[in-house]
Design the sequence.
């Protein structure tokens, strides 16, 4: 009886923050981004794979934009848009005892999310118009002038440095929270749950959206990419 009571109390102290579609999106995106970076640095025979991986990344990003509007409560962009004052206050108290705790994206984490989405979208979209003028070109490179394609190619090559820097910053921030603040940010992205005690952003009666809605959103996102690629 005592064990059952303790188990119940433990359950009451947790809340599902990251729903299954968001978790699958996260790890699929991690896998595809790593694959894209690796394939881009291999021989020319792998560039076709690089293009297909890019289409997959763009599909996931479009899905995330939809899910940020119609998805579960903690996945919605509106749940982690903070004022500059809130962000500054959180950053100022980051390593003090007065720091506020969030179960969703905290004010600094929200900046990282939006920055990563912007950088990844820039990389994916610029790749559609890029060309090396020899072997490989994006599906939309021929639909624009050579100068515009060259500009997109330059953006694609330069932005990868920004992307890798953002990834390193994201990893370092996660490790910092783990080692210095004793908060594991990786595990909740696997099982979806966080301890809700003392959190500022608890959403009462938060419920995950049905899986079928995520499936439809993903299929629609893939259809958009298929259509855009077909325009070339």
Sequence:
């Amino acid at each position: 009886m005592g064990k059952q009571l303790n188990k119940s109390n433990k359950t009451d102290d947790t809340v599902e923050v990251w729903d299954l579609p968001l978790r699958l999106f996260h790890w699929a995106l991690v896998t595809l981004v790593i694959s894209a970076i690796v394939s881009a640095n291999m021989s020319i025979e792998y560039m076709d794979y690089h293009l297909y991986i890019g289409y997959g990344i763009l599909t996931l990003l479009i899905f995330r934009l939809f899910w940020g509007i119609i998805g579960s409560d903690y996945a919605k962009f509106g749940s982690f848009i903070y004022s500059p004052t809130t962000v500054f206050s959180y950053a100022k108290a980051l390593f003090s005892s007065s720091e506020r705790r969030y179960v969703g994206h905290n004010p600094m984490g929200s900046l990282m999310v939006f920055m990563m989405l912007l950088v990844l979208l820039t990389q994916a979209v610029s790749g559609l118009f890029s060309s090396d003028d020899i072997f490989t070109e994006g599906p939309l490179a021929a639909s624009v002038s050579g100068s515009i394609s060259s500009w997109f190619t330059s953006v694609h090559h330069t932005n990868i440095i920004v992307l890798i820097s953002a990834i390193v910053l994201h990893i370092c921030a996660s490790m910092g929270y783990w080692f210095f603040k004793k908060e594991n940010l990786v595990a909740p992205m696997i099982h979806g749950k966080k301890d809700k005690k003392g959190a500022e952003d608890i959403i009462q009666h938060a419920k995950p959206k049905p899986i079928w809605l995520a499936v439809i959103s993903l299929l629609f996102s893939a259809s958009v990419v298929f259509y855009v690629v077909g325009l070339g």
